[in-house]
Write a structure and sequence with these properties.
17% of the residues lie in helices and 34% in strands. The protein is built from one helix and four strands; from the N terminus they run βββαβ. A four-stranded antiparallel β-sheet has the order 3-2-1-4, with helices on one face. The longest helix has 14 residues, at 53-66. It is globular and about 40 Å long. The chain starts with 7 loop residues before the first strand and ends with a strand. 17% of the residues are buried.
Length: 82
């Protein structure tokens, strides 16, 4: 059985507050069937969703399209240990 490479988080910083406020992390929302429905950004790194690189890219794409003020944020993929 193949093991998924799940070790990534999506981190987001507000560009204007980058030096003063801590980052937020993506928590993926899924439906009953496990289908991706959206993302909420939370302060707790421990409660953030650990995902594959493909899932992390999907989160970044969703955030860029669905958040009206997405241009105000720097969104990046980080490895779990960072």
């Amino acid at each position: 059985m193949e093991q998924k490479d799940q070790r990534y988080l999506v981190q987001q910083n507000k560009i204007s507050d980058a030096e003063t406020k801590p980052p937020v992390f993506a928590k993926v929302m899924r439906g009953k069937e496990g289908a991706f429905e959206g993302v909420s950004f939370i302060k707790s790194k421990d409660k953030a969703t650990i995902m594959t690189i493909a899932e992390a890219n999907q989160v970044i794409d969703w955030a860029g399209k669905k958040k009206a003020n997405a241009h105000e944020y720097l969104t990046k993929i980080i490895c779990l240990g960072q």
